[in-house]
Design goal:
The protein has 441 residues and is of the alpha+beta class. The protein contains 7 helices and 25 strands. It has helices at residues 12-24, 35-48, 67-74, 154-158, 177-181, 207-213, 248-251, and strands spanning 29-30, 94-97, 100-103, 137-141, 150-153, 162-170, 197-206, 222-227, 232-234, 237-240, 246-247, 256-261, 264-265, 275-277, 290-296, 300-301, 329-333, 339-342, 347-355, 360-366, 374-375, 377-378, 387-394, 400-410, 435-440. The chain has a 5-stranded mixed beta sheet. Strands 6, 7, 12, 13 and 14 form a 5-stranded antiparallel beta sheet that branches. A 5-stranded mixed beta sheet has the order 18-25-24-20-21, with no helix packed on it. Strand 4 (137-141) and strand 5 (150-153) form a beta hairpin. It is globular. The protein starts with 11 loop residues before the first helix and ends with a strand. The model is unreliable at 1-11 and 45-79 (pLDDT under 50). The chain binds ligand MTE. The site of ligand MTE has 19 residues, from loops. Ligand MTE binds at residues 120-125, 169, 171, 227, 229, 242, 270-271, 283-284, 286-289.
Amino acid sequence: MPHDLSDDLSDESHYDRTRLRQWARGRARSAGMDRRDLLKLFAAGAAAGSMGLAAGAGPAFAATDTAAAAAAASGAPGALAAPGILKPLPPELFTLRGTNAETNFAALRGTGLLTPVDRFFVRNHTSTPRVDPGRWRLKVWGDGLAGGPVEFSYERLRALPVVERTLFLECAGNARSFYATQQGQAVTGTPWTLGAIGVARWRGARLSDVLRQAGVTPGAVDVMPRGLDDEVTANGVNLGRVRRPLPVAKALDDVLLAYEMNGQPLPADHGGPVRLVVPDWVGISSIKWVGDIEVSAEPLYSPWNTEMYRLFGPGHPAEGGPVVTRQTLKSAFELDLGATVRVHRPRVLTGRSWSAAAPVTRIDVSVDGGGHWRRARVHDTPSRGGWVRWSVPWTPRVTGATALLARATDATGRTQPETSAHNTQGYLFDAVVRHPVTVVP
Ligand code: MTE
């Protein structure tokens, strides 16, 4: 039906404004939940600025970590457990945050461009399900198809033309904790530092090939992939299984149904046997353990594009500002926050920078809290959707506390700002991070 969406679906803000109008007029559908329940959540999200559901791991900022994570922080026995994650999580590689595991950036030093699976962050709303590829089916269905549902087995998916891309996957809330620690602003959600990102070589089929084989029609407007993991309950409301609509224009453009990561079958924790990989968009778009995809001739809403993953707070309308789609740009040192370094001892500072808008072309580094800047040496050919490694030599000359800063600029000319625009759920942090270190005798 709604052909008033016309040709503008690739314009994300237009897409979202149109959807909100349709929602207000009752013309958009709440998928998988009662419309009244979703409206209640939506209203609560707008009123409170957030329901504490942001990026999932629980209510208040300081209270997100589970007992296991607290044990990890204190080095107590049991530190290696995160509920629901199957792969080993040694404390030198990961910091546990509730049901999630953050990559320690220091553990990337010396690794290649790709993030090894053994240190790739995991973001689970609930827990990793074990899905047998032999029994896995992808059901594509909905009134945006010419006919009835179409099923794809693992073999059928693998028989489609193969695509391979090196892309970063980054949580919308990556670096969220710096809103509080650096800008003094309250945010809800998992207090990630900079490690809710990884870069992998993804291999799979094009979502567009699957949609075409399933008979997508010109009337289709939204595509809603849904995971096979457990239903999510938050504040006593069952939100159903993790799902988030994508405009059909994005779905037909560059989205992958990935079954391999860094040359291996996709590991269970990362969505195996099959997940979406949505280039440049926030991690929640890349639905893991995908089991079905609704193709709809009506706009769709789920909690993951209404009261979560939307910008709330000062400067945004009460009903929520834009839905979060494209990621932003950041830089990180491959060094622990609060590290201790020796005075007069030459060392090489290393790090990585990335941008969702364009390849990163330049990194400037300061070792004196922003007083002086030097251009870093870039070690990789900048590429769209990836990151670059960089380095600068440094011999600390004075003892005491200082801050290391790295500032990326991408090919569009965009540079990391000094402060990031606040939103109550702490998404899209893009400011230069002040990385504390102590220089000791
Ligand atoms: N898909 C499902 N089915 N369930 C989830 O919990 N988490 C999302 C996304 N896809 C999630 C999901 C979020 S918020 C992110 S950031 C990425 O998966 C994380 O992918 P990773 O765990 O492979 O790093």
